[in-house]
Amino acid sequence: MQRRIALSLGLASGLALLAAHGQVHAQSPSPATAPEPALGDPMPDRILTLANGVTVNADIAYSVIPGYRPIILDLYRPAAQAGPLPLILYIHGGGWANGHTRQSGAFSDFPAVLADLSARGYVVASLEYRLSKEAPFPAAIDDVRTAIRFLRANAARFGLDGGKVAVWGGSAGGQLAALAALQCGGAPTGEDKSNPGQSDCMQAGAGWYGVYDFATMPQAIAGAENAYLDCVKPDCPADRVRAASPAAHVDAKDPPMLLIHGTDDKVVPAAQSQQLAATLKAAHVPVTLEIIPGVGHSWIGADAAATRAASLRALDLTFRFFDTQLKGRK
């Protein structure tokens, strides 16, 4: 008992001493409350400014579906912006099961790549989507279309030109980008049907080493395909395989496409890009096919120099393609 009294007296003396020196503050005000559950985000704007003056609005929620996490995108805008700018959407890869908005291939700082693209005079959106273990096909492509409608609905807010939109992706993102470019214009599908008055069509599409026809795709990534399609190949329903295959949706109204692949790709063979290019040409759709020798998936070559050279070549071709299609530059 005496020990407890001594401790209490010591604590009281210590607090009195701190108070005398101004180190004890009054109790903080009680936190604010709402009359009903407060579901909003009190820190919605996370804006970064990069070295080249490009600003990034990070983690913008473009779709909120009950039962799922908010689905987000990063938005890049150049420092000097006079009037609305063309929009480019980037869709990450990862076998439909992994990946995020700030990663692509061997690029160690992919946000810097997207910022360089934005600095050329574009609004650039890099978006997440529901992964295959969260929700299989068609959830991911539904999310991509939701993002396009969201961005067009907020064109004035983000300073973008909704009439000049392109999509770009690599690997699984290449499949999603091609599917978004080659099949559009229907009523919103899936759980999020917001902004129904906005088009999900676009003016150009670019795909890096994507899967474009699941029917002709070998079994190299069977596990990833099965999870994404929610069935086991080769026993998947034919209509489901067709619905997920960009090559099955080609018609003469499709926008110009750029397809780039490596000769040594053991994950997704270059034949996937070659087949889609042939299908587009047969439908009289403008298409550019570039096959980079000596590199595989993600532009990985025999050494770091080969990987870097192929990565930069693909990037240069892609940037120049967008300049031609969205700005009329040669």
Q: Characterize the main sheet.
A: 9 strands, mixed
How many E strands? 9
Give the structural class: alpha/beta
**Poorly predicted tracts of residues:** 1-20
What number is the mean pLDDT?
A: 91
Task: Explain how this protein is built.
The protein has nine helices and nine strands. With 330 residues, the chain is an alpha/beta fold. A nine-stranded mixed β-sheet has the order 1-2-3-5-4-6-7-8-9, with helices on both faces. Helix 8 links the parallel strand 8 and strand 9 (287-292). It starts with a helix and ends with a helix.
Task: Outline the fold blueprint.
Blueprint: H1 2-20, E1 47-49, E2 55-63, E3 71-77, E4 85-91, H2 110-119, E5 123-127, H3 139-153, H4 155-158, E6 160-170, H5 172-182, E7 204-208, H6 222-229, H7 238-244, E8 257-262, H8 271-282, E9 287-292, H9 304-327
Parallel strand pairs: 4-5, 4-6, 6-7, 7-8, 8-9
Antiparallel strand pairs: 1-2, 2-3, 3-5
Helix pairs in contact: 3-5
